[in-house]
Design goal:
This protein is an alpha/beta fold. The protein folds into two domains: 234 residues, Rossmann fold; 96 residues, ACT domain (Alpha-Beta Plaits, 2-Layer Sandwich), CATH 3.30.70. 35% of the residues lie in helices and 30% in strands. It is built from twelve helices and 14 strands. The strands form three sheets. Strands 6-7-8-3-9-10 form a six-stranded mixed β-sheet, with helices on both faces. It has a four-stranded antiparallel β-sheet with strand order 2-1-4-5, with helices on one face. Strands 12-13-11-14 form a four-stranded antiparallel β-sheet. The radius of gyration is 24 Å and the shape is elongated. The structure holds adenosine-5'-diphosphate and magnesium ion. Adenosine-5'-diphosphate binds next to β1, β2 and α1.
């Protein structure tokens, strides 16, 4: 549905040229929810704005649904842009217009008759569960409701693609969850292809099928979300995973402080990552039964990503006997298909 080939983008600034996007190629499939994650300044917004050519790449190709639109004129682009909706962090609604009129704006441009527009807007408001808010102004709405209006407006012309630039970054966790749920429903019901820019790995974990991790204008890793979590290939990938769940607090403490008072400093800390079948093995009790190795669990969690289990444990391992070699137990853990990393 969306093919970006070798995109390069530079900006001229007062401080000189900024190389914002470096040789980025992405292939986003019809009907998928694709995440673009990275820290601020990584080039996420720029690359996503290249999809509807709000940003014109300096080189490379943009192919939408089989059509090479890279060199389209503004006039040709306006019809392509109708098939690509977009929502933003700060909603970008017109404050002086009602919810109804905000959604009506893109419809008016299509020349649709008034009665058809009313029907369409009524349906859209039902879809985003705001039927009772048609005639209020945006200032009377909560952040989550404003984003729902923005979503309804973005869907007004029945786009094939929805681009979301940090659409949940200004929202609290509960509202974020409800907006993500709505996006997932739209993806499933309308077979809408969705591209989500975020700096939060939890957003990627919750609804994306695949994701690209960006750093300094480059895609450093791109994979199925489950694979990104189970086998991160880059340091940046690992860092984002650490910030996606509750292991965040433990690992952050350990990394920033270097030591924790309640931990026996002489024992190494291991980070175990389980995926698939390995989650079904009673690993800790096997370690004790087979090797006489005890585990002090410092952190543990099993998450479900795309309905597949993904477990994490941080443990200190020690033998029943003083100075007992734990290497055979580590070997056993690896053999069980659990990835094992010594983190301290
Ligand atoms: N219109 C612009 N003019 C000049 N520099 C820009 C412009 N847009 C983005 N940049 C620069 O390009 C880089 C990538 O920005 P951006 O794509 O907004 O990153 P992200 O969305 O990941 O935070 C940054 O260094 C940013 O300052
Ligand atoms: Mg951005």
């Amino acid at each position: 549905m969306i093919k970006l080939e070798h995109i390069e983008k530079y900006f001229d600034t007062s401080k000189g040229k900024v190389h914002a996007v470096k040789d980025v190629s992405l292939n986003i499939k019809q009907g998928e929810i694709f995440g673009v994650i990275g820290f601020s300044g990584a080039g996420k917004s720029t690359i996503v704005r290249c999809i509807n050519l709000l940003e014109k790449p300096d080189s490379g190709k943009v192919i939408i649904d089989g059509e090479d639109i890279t060199d389209y004129s503004d006039k040709e682009l306006s019809s392509v842009r109708q098939s690509i909706g977009m929502i933003f962090q700060h909603f970008n609604l017109m404050p002086s217009r009602t919810v109804f009129d905000n959604i009506d704006m893109p419809l008016k441009r299509t020349g649709m008759k008034k009665e058809d527009r009313i029907k369409k807007i009524t349906k859209l408001l039902e879809l985003v569960e705001l039927s009772d808010k048609a005639y209020v102004h945006p200032s009377q709405l909560s952040g989550g409701q404003k984003q729902r209006v923005a979503i309804a407006r973005a869907l007004a012309c029945d786009p094939k693609i929805l681009l979301c630039d940090e659409a949940t970054s200004a929202l609290d966790p509960k509202t974020t969850a409800s907006i993500l749920k709505l996006l997932k429903t739209l993806n499933e019901q309308l077979k809408l292809t969705i591209v989500i820019i975020t700096h939060q790995m939890s957003v990627v974990k919750d609804i994306c099928h695949r994701a690209a991790i960006m750093e300094n204008g480059e895609v450093v890793e791109c994979n199925d979300v489950y694979e990104l979590f189970a086998n991160p290939k880059t340091e940046l990938g690992k860092k984002f995973i650490e910030t996606s769940g509750s292991s965040e607090n433990f690992l952050k403490l350990l990394h920033t402080k270097g030591k924790l008072e309640f931990i026996d400093e002489n024992l190494p800390v291991y980070h175990l990552t389980y995926t698939g079948n390995a989650t079904a093995i009673p690993l800790m009790s096997r370690l004790y039964a087979n090797f006489g190795i005890e585990a002090n669990i410092l952190y543990g969690n099993i998450d479900y990503i795309e309905e597949k289990p993904f477990g994490q444990l941080c443990v200190q391992l020690f033998g029943k006997e003083p100075n007992q070699d734990i290497e055979p137990a580590l070997e056993f853990i690896r053999k069980m298909g659990v990835s094992l990393e010594r983190i301290k």
